[in-house]
């Protein structure tokens, strides 16, 4: 077999063949002795039990026997049943487990050496990609070695040292070399450099020791190994007390479910260690582990024990589901949530214990209490904040995966209350211990749960917190959610973390916008200058930014600030990717197909359904405000050229499309309604327009639907009047104000005001006659030649302007030699932007491209906002 | 009309001593009960070293009670400190007053210091004594003396913080002594000092109190309030106010931290109408279009701040509701009359506001009823007619507007601009611009030619 592979491999490139060959040989070595032995065993046991194992089996049997005999002493009748189940359960486990165990140490060493050899080979041909791969493999092995607390083989240190020197040589050579390496190779080289630097730092002392005296180092190692070696076999036949531990080391599984009796307070730490070592290994039965830990929790007595067990239990619950795509089972989630609560409770009750991410080393097996410690507090390694983060993430993930229209989703949402409580409890804990960094994170989590919710929901969440025994310092006071959000945000503004600050700011703005406080929200957004830097933020923050902007637009709409609303929403609708930008749906692209990974990443970003901003409502708001802005504008311009200046392209496109249709039936969708309303408005039928707009069903989703409808009716009247004046001015010489006021059922004063405004801003060439109360239109009919003269004058003007601009550019370049650097930088940035766009089209680096797109939206919006402000 | 009184909002942004005139004004216009204002004056004076003044206020306030003993101690203390500081400062002053020294002093402050130290043994501490003495004089109300000392200190000192502080002190002194010309100079230099502090560009670091951007915002806000004293007293003040306040940096300061300053901005814009209406006067475009700018800002900040004056402009130029504008003007009249800064401009304000109304009215209307227009201007019929005649005579409307006394109307006949004129209007200046283009090209061609000529050598 190996021969065959070797031959096949030879035709391949050298490095590859060698890798395969090594792989094969290293794998082959273990099965070989097992296989021949297996066959006779098979036949022998064929008729007997289903067990199909060979020498391993006999060994295990003998062991079982010894175990049994010991069990007999402890337990009376049950033993036999235990024995059997154990046998059945373990047979398969042991088969694999043992095989690894047999030569585990040697095999690892061999593997390492093989990898080292390959690296040497690859070094010769300067193939850094291969080296990088092999190094990763090697490093992983060494880490595994460390996990089982074996000494680091000198071989690894040797490789490391030599690698460093050859790396340095390669880098210097690369600098001089005329012909550059290809891109992937060069990238691998730099990556290697960093990796090696990192690893060397990690093993600093060893490397130094090795460099000082390589031989002594190796001697040390062999000494360490030989000391350990004899201890291993001895342990095997050793006493029962040691068995649990030894088993863990050798079998790497904790399948001995029958040993429940062993879980006494004394052995907790040993069991814990066993489980920790098994963590993340292939054959670990996770549910079994959880069961064991639960039992351990029951028997644990001291706080220290409980903390330790809880830490392990929670993390193993989170480990239960290894795949990223699916969510954690809900019962497990609830259990984890309870346990985190418990953990926080213990820590807050007894301040002498504290959980920290970094602590000095301590003996995992010893019981510790405040009395045994040098300082007053017992520091235990672990991180509550990461548990809380994970819990929250899992909650979101489960919501993403549950069908939002089913009852299950609603049931799941009910868990948010307890989750919110947990977060608040954690906040209280961190406030007490004065840990600023995790406190900031936990406050952010809390903020993210409430910022987009209406008052009543926030109050419900807060009331749950109010009854819990642990309360954070910031609480809802007198049902003013604004105040609560404000205080949470202020807390985050004061923290040093700029990402949290940005997010807090956006949440704050969002909340203001949600509560129709448009001006405050707008001022905050403009003052934050976020629109300038948002393109460099991470995708989640960009999504939050987009949500905030959209909410701001909606709030402007609700406040009756039609122009602002139109300007704000314009940009996001121009992209035609509203859903994608708001992370409420995966965009389906017409000309390209997403790779599964991209789609998966996209799906992970999605917001859970209850956080969505209704896109149909959004579209209705945008189109209606576009209608109110655009229709009078359309009416006011009469020449073709001016028509090109559009405010809202997307609206104009829809309108053109609607115009082209021969037959129009009764309106069905929101768009139909708005398009027909626009037609009616153009014709001066404001009542029809109003009825059509008001009959749009989606308005009911707006909190203040009736007041919004009233506002819209008023706007339609006014804009109808303006449109009417623009459209029909050429056909009248005078128009009575009272007639206008009757036609549009507006008060006379409002009509006068609107007409005056139009006259003042020179939109309408007319004047008012106060005695007869009429509008007098002054329309000058231009003759053909006059018209042409006008056009000519305009064109000449444009020509001169163009000339000036061109010259400016040229002169600008010549004179601003000093600015050249900046200019070059700008160019480069543009180029990268171009590349990004290109990448997007090719469907290449989607993450980056997304960022770029979001940025453009964001930036454009910033400008728009400024313009909107200026134009008012 | 107490609701439109801004004293309370402004006071936090003023120096203790600058508040005295404001309070004195409040006593005069009797908006608030006299005792309350006096109590406020007393509280204010208590914190200064003007012991005698405080005592007299106390006596006014509580005629029957005995003067607290603390004043006596305070008074002695003040006199004592005064003597001590004066002695310290005198040393430097003696040196400076020697004519040779005055001649020897140069622009370079470090050099000056070295010179003084070398020849006369003046140390840095002694110079700081000037500052301390000046500040002390200020606290007991000797403003002109304080101004002198602070001036000398500023010439000599190199400490940037103290210099800025001395700037503020000098400005306050000049304001309180009523030297508006020097105050204006002082204000301008101070503004430069404030503006030249490089603003920080980090968008996210605006949280800490020591942040330079925040500090700049604070000092700009203060500057805005202090400058009101100068701008509403200096003859050129209103146009200068518009120049300053409409500069982007200060406009955004108004919008962010002190929207009530809009009242003064709006008033100044109305007042400056005359100045900008005179053709050929050298006012910047910013001032000429000030009303348009101000209206925009007022509209934007409407949700934050509103008073009769801003409402007047808004009704007139945003809603074109002349009736409402008239109503607001009536209220604004009172508000202006009661305002400390604006009181002296009441008539001028009214006249200009009327002009603005009639201008807008005439532009929109073709035939105007004189009676109605007089109503709009808050004038009686006869007065209105007189006013209108004056208006027609004064402005360029003369050719277009005619009064028909029989029907009691003004007829405004503004013929639309003939086509040829608009074409001329459009093309005017094109030739000049083209020439400028050519000149610019020649200018750039020259250096290049020179370079080429040089290079062969």
UniProtKB/TrEMBL annotation, chain A:
Residues 609-782 form the PCI domain. The keyword Protein biosynthesis applies. Residues 96-106, 819-843 have a biased composition (Basic and acidic residues). It is found in: Cytoplasm. Residues 845-854 have a biased composition (Gly residues). Residues 1-106, 231-252, 811-872 are annotated as: Disordered. The keyword Coiled coil applies. GO terms for biological process: formation of cytoplasmic translation initiation complex. Residues 160-213 form a coiled coil. InterPro entries: EIF3C (IPR027516), EIF3C_N_dom (IPR008905), EIF3CL_C (IPR058999), PCI_dom (IPR000717), WH_DNA-bd_sf (IPR036390). Residues 11-28, 53-73, 86-95 have a biased composition (Acidic residues). GO terms for cellular component: eukaryotic 43S preinitiation complex; eukaryotic 48S preinitiation complex; eukaryotic translation initiation factor 3 complex. PROSITE patterns: PCI. Component of the eukaryotic translation initiation factor 3 (eIF-3) complex. This is Eukaryotic translation initiation factor 3 subunit C. It comes from Phanerochaete sordida. The lineage of its organism: Eukaryota, Fungi, Dikarya, Basidiomycota, Agaricomycotina.
Automatic annotation (TrEMBL), chain B:
The keyword Amino-acid biosynthesis does not apply. Signal peptide: none annotated. It comes from Phanerochaete sordida. It comes from the Eukaryota. One of its GO terms (biological process) is formation of cytoplasmic translation initiation complex. PROSITE patterns: PCI. SMART domains: eIF3_N, PINT. Residues 230-417 form the PCI domain. One of its GO terms (cellular component) is eukaryotic 48S preinitiation complex. GO terms for molecular function: translation initiation factor activity. Pfam families: eIF3_N (PF09440), EIF3E_C (PF21357), PCI (PF01399). This is Eukaryotic translation initiation factor 3 subunit E. Component of the eukaryotic translation initiation factor 3 (eIF-3) complex. It is found in: Cytoplasm.
């Amino acid at each position: 077999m190996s021969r065959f592979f070797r031959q096949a491999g030879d035709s391949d490139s050298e490095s590859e063949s060698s890798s395969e060959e090594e792989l094969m040989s290293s794998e082959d070595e273990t099965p070989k002795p097992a296989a021949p032995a297996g066959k006779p065993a098979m036949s022998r046991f064929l008729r007997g039990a289903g067990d199909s194992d060979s020498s391993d089996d006999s060994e295990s049997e003998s062991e079982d026997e010894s175990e049994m005999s010991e069990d007999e002493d402890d337990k009376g009748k049950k033993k036999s049943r235990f024995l059997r189940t154990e046998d059945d359960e373990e047979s398969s486990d042991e088969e694999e487990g043992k095989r690894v165990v047999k030569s585990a140490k040697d095999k690892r060493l061999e593997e390492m050496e093989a990898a080292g050899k390959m690296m040497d080979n690859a070094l010769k041909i300067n193939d850094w990609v291969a080296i990088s791969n092999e190094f990763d493999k090697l490093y992983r092995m060494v880490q595994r070695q460390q996990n089982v607390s074996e000494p680091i083989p000198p071989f690894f240190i040797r490789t490391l040292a030599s690698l460093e020197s050859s790396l340095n040589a390669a880098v210097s050579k690369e600098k001089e070399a005329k012909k550059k390496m290809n891109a992937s190779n060069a990238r691998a080289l730099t990556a290697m450099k960093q990796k090696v630097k990192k690893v060397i730092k990690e093993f600093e002392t060893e490397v130094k020791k090795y460099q000082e005296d390589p031989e002594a180092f190796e001697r040390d190692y062999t000494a360490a190994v030989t000391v350990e070696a004899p201890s291993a076999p001895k342990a095997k036949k050793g006493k029962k007390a040691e068995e649990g531990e030894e088993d863990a080391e050798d079998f790497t599984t904790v399948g001995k479910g029958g040993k429940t009796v062993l879980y006494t307070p004394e052995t907790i730490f040993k069991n814990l260690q066993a489980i920790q070592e098994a963590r993340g290994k292939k054959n670990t039965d996770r549910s079994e582990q959880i069961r064991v830990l639960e039992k351990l929790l029951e028997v644990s007595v001291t706080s220290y024990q409980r903390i330790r067990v809880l830490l392990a239990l929670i993390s193993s619950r989170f480990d239960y589901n290894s795949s990223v795509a699916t969510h954690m089972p809900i019962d497990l989630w609830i259990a984890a949530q309870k346990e985190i609560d418990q953990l926080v409770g213990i820590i807050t009750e007894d301040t002498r214990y504290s959980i920290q991410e970094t602590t000095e080393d301590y003996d995992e097996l010893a019981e510790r209490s405040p009395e045994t410690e040098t300082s007053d507090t017992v520091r235990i390694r672990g991180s509550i904040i990461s548990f809380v983060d994970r819990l929250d993430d899992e909650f979101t993930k489960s919501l993403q995966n549950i069908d939002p229209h089913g009852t299950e989703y609603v049931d799941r949402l009910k868990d948010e209350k307890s989750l919110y409580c947990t977060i608040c409890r954690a906040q209280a804990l961190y406030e007490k211990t004065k840990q600023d960094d995790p406190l900031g994170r936990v406050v952010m989590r809390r903020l993210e749960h409430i910022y987009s919710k209406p008052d009543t929901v926030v109050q419900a969440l807060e009331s749950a917190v109010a009854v819990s025994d642990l309360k954070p310092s910031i609480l809802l006071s007198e049902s003013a959610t604004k105040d609560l959000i404000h205080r949470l945000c202020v807390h985050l503004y004061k923290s040093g973390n700029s990402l949290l600050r940005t997010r807090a700011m956006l949440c704050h703005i969002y909340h203001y916008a949600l509560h129709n406080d448009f001006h405050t929200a707008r001022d905050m957004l403009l003052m934050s200058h976020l629109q300038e830097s948002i393109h460099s933020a991470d995708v989640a923050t960009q999504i939050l930014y987009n949500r905030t902007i959209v909410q701001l637009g909606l709030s402007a709409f609700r406040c009756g600030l039609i122009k602002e609303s139109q300007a704000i929403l314009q940009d996001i609708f121009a992209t035609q990717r509203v859903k994608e930008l708001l992370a409420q749906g995966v965009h389906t692209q017409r000309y390209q197909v997403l790779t599964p990974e991209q789609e998966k990443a996209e799906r992970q970003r999605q917001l859970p359904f209850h956080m969505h901003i209704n896109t149909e409502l959004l579209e209705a708001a945008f189109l209606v405000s576009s209608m109110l802005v655009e229709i009078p504008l359309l009416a006011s311009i009469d020449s073709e050229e001016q028509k090109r200046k559009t405010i809202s392209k997307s609206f104009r496109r829809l309108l053109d499309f609607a115009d082209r249709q021969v037959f129009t039936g009764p309106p069905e969708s929101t768009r139909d309604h708005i398009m027909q309303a626009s037609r009616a408005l153009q014709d001066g039928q404001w009542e029809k327009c109003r009825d059509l707009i008001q009959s749009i069903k989606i308005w009911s989703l707006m909190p203040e639907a009736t007041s919004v409808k009233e506002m819209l009716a008023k706007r339609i009247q006014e804009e109808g009047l303006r449109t009417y004046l623009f459209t029909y001015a050429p056909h009248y010489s005078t128009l009575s104000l009272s007639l206008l006021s009757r036609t549009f059922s507006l008060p006379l004063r409002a009509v006068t005001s609107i007409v005056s405004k139009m006259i003042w801003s020179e939109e309408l060439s007319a004047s008012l006659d106060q005695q007869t109360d009429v509008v007098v239109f002054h329309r000058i009919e231009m003759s053909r030649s006059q018209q042409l003269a006008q056009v000519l004058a305009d064109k000449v003007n444009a020509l001169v302007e163009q000339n000036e601009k061109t010259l400016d550019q040229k002169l600008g370049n010549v004179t601003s030699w000093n600015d050249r650097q900046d200019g070059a930088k700008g160019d480069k940035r543009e180029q990268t932007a171009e590349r990004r766009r290109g990448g997007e089209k090719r469907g290449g680096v989607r993450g980056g491209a997304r960022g770029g797109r979001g940025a453009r939206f964001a930036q454009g919006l910033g400008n728009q906002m400024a313009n909107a402000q200026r134009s008012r | 009309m107490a609701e439109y009184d801004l004293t309370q909002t402004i006071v936090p942004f003023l120096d203790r001593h600058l508040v005295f005139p404001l309070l004195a004004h409040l006593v005069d216009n009797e908006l608030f009960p006299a005792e309350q204002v006096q109590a406020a004056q007393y509280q204010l004076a208590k914190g200064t070293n003007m012991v005698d003044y405080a005592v007299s206020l106390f006596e006014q306030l509580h005629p029957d009670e005995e003067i607290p003993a603390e004043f006596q101690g305070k008074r002695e203390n003040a006199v004592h400190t005064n003597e001590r500081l004066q002695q310290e400062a005198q040393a430097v002053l003696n040196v400076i007053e020697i004519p040779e020294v005055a001649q020897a002093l140069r622009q370079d402050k470090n050099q000056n210091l070295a010179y003084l130290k070398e020849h006369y043994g003046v140390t840095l501490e002694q110079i700081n004594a000037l500052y301390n003495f000046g500040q002390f004089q200020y606290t007991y109300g000797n403003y002109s003396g304080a101004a002198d000392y602070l001036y000398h200190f500023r010439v000599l000192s190199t400490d940037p913080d103290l210099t800025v502080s001395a700037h503020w002190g000098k400005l306050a002194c000049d304001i309180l002594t009523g030297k508006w010309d020097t105050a204006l100079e002082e204000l301008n230099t101070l503004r430069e000092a404030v503006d030249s502090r490089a603003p920080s560009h980090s968008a996210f670091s605006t949280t800490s109190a020591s942040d330079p951007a925040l500090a700049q915002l604070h000092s700009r806000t203060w500057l805005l309030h202090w400058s009101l004293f100068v701008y509403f007293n200096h003859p050129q003040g209103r146009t200068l106010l518009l120049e300053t306040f409409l500069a982007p940096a200060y406009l955004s300061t108004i919008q962010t931290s002190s929207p009530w300053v809009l009242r003064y901005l709006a008033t100044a814009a109305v007042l400056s109408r005359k100045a900008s209406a005179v053709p050929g006067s050298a006012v910047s475009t910013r001032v000429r279009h000030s009303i348009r700018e101000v209206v925009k800002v007022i509209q934007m900040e409407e949700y934050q701040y509103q008073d009769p004056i801003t409402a007047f402009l808004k009704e007139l130029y945003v809603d074109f509701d002349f009736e409402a504008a008239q109503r607001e003007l009536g209220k604004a009249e009172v508000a202006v009359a009661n305002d400390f800064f604006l009181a002296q401009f009441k008539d001028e304000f009214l006249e200009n506001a009327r002009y603005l109304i009639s201008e807008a009215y005439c532009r929109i209307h073709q035939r105007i009823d004189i009676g109605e227009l007089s109503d709009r201007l808050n004038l009686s019929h006869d007065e209105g007619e007189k006013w209108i005649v004056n208006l027609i005579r004064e402005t360029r409307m003369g050719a277009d507007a005619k009064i028909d006394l029989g029907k009691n109307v003004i007829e405004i006949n503004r013929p639309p601009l003939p086509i040829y004129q608009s074409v001329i209007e459009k093309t005017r200046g094109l030739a000049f611009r083209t020439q400028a283009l050519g000149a610019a090209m020649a200018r750039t061609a020259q250096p290049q030619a020179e370079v080429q000529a040089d290079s062969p050598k």
